Amino acid sequence: MKSGFGEGAYFITRSVYRDQFREKLGFDPFPGTLNIEVGDPEIVERIREGAPVIQGGGGFGDVLYVKALLNGVVEGAILFPLKTHHRQGCLEFVAPVNLRKTLKLRDGDTVSLDIDTSEIQE
Fold first, then answer.
1. Is 5 annotated as a binding-site member?
2. Is 71 annotated to bind ligand?
3. Which residues are recorded as binding Mg(2+)?
């Protein structure tokens, strides 16, 4: 994992997304994302394919999402903003808690994700 641009907090707190996060993810995300580097960008594309969508609006782009479990402990979701500055091998994870504090994470730490495929369309 690595530090990001600090933009996640801004976008997550926009009402156009926040209301849908509550409805579709079942939680109110902590304002910020955990950026997870994945060695193979093709893995990211496979996870992203068929992911449900959170509609943007008012100049904000759509966001695809997949529910996941981080380190076997924290339920959250991987977000795939259709407008992003991140390279393809980076996942953005959100959860209802501050993940760095809750899991005592630092840049360079390795994390695991268990993907919930129940909402992915084939």
1. yes
2. no
3. 33, 35
**Residue 100 annotated as lining a ligand binding site:** yes
User: Known binder of ligand: residue 35?
Assistant: yes
30 has binding-site annotation: no
Q: Is 75 annotated as a binding residue?
A: no
In a domain, 120, yes or no: no
Read off the CATH number of the domain in which 90 is found: 2.40.30.30
The string of pLDDT tens digits covering residues 61-86 is: 999 999 999 999 999 999 998 876 55
Domain that holds residue 79: 8-105
The response to whether 61 counts as a known ligand-binding position is no
For 75-81, which contacts have Cβ atoms below 8 Å and span 24 or more sequence positions? 75/27, 76/25, 76/27, 76/29, 77/25, 78/47, 78/113, 78/115, 79/33, 80/48, 80/51, 81/11
Q: Which one, of 9, 30, 7, 4, lies nearest residue 83 by Cα?
A: 7
